[in-house]
Amino acid sequence: MGGKEKGRGEGISRRRFLTFTLGGTGAFLASVALYPMVRFSADPSLKREEERASFVDVGPVDQFDETYKLVRFFVKRKDGWHHPEKGVERTAWVRRSATGEILALSPVCKHLNCTVKWQGNPRYKNEFYCPCHGGRYDENGVNIPGTPPAAPLDRYETKVENGRLYLGNIVPRRKG
Ligand code: FES
């Protein structure tokens, strides 16, 4: 009889143990998911700071002209669990028109993510070329029909402040 009571007592404590463990895990997961929302709603200036931080100074705007130039820069961003000290490397093809309009394009091909190059194939002047499967884009980064890519190259958000060019987030463009 004493053994029976002992067994029931163990059952209750096991149930309690499971309740605490599962409840604790659920609360932890919920707090991880809600943390960014709570953080930004509690302090909107943090969100503004993150937005500002997403723009990177890539140099004087007058270094750019109508010929595309490849720019390398680093963004302070977590790459999964990896948090490189210098930041994550990004590249962009940048040009500035005669009227001062900036176009900054991602070099990542929209077919299977190879790297495109401005005038990368001597057969196709004034085009971006992807060597992997012969993908081609016109001088505005718009995919040329009949070649593998199905969408234009993504572009970076840009802004000019005090004579310097800043690049921001990558924005996909509509399919051509
Ligand atoms: S990855 Fe560029 S054409 Fe296929």
Automatic annotation (TrEMBL):
Family: Belongs to the Rieske iron-sulfur protein family.
Highest taxon listed in the record's lineage: Bacteria
The protein's name in its UniProt record: Menaquinol:cytochrome c reductase iron-sulfur subunit
Segments forming domain Rieske: 96-167
GO MF annotation terms: 2 iron, 2 sulfur cluster binding; metal ion binding; monooxygenase activity; oxidoreductase activity, acting on paired donors, with incorporation or reduction of molecular oxygen
Transmembrane stretches, start-end: 20-38
InterPro entries xrefs: Rieske_2Fe-2S, Rieske_2Fe-2S_sf, Rieske_Fe-S_prot, TAT_signal
Free-text function comment from the UniProt entry: Component of the menaquinol:cytochrome c reductase complex. The Rieske protein is a high potential 2Fe-2S protein.
Keywords: 2Fe-2S, Disulfide bond, Electron transport, Iron, Iron-sulfur, Membrane, Metal-binding, Oxidoreductase, Transmembrane, Transmembrane helix, Transport
Signal sequence annotation: none
Subunit structure: The main subunits of the menaquinol:cytochrome c complex are a Rieske-type iron-sulfur protein (QcrA), a cytochrome b (QcrB) and a cytochrome c (QcrC).
Keyword ATP-binding: no
PANTHER family given in the database record: CYTOCHROME B-C1 COMPLEX SUBUNIT RIESKE, MITOCHONDRIAL
Lineage, highest ranks first: Bacteria, Bacillati, Bacillota, Bacilli, Bacillales
Pfam families: Rieske (PF00355)
Organism: Planifilum fulgidum
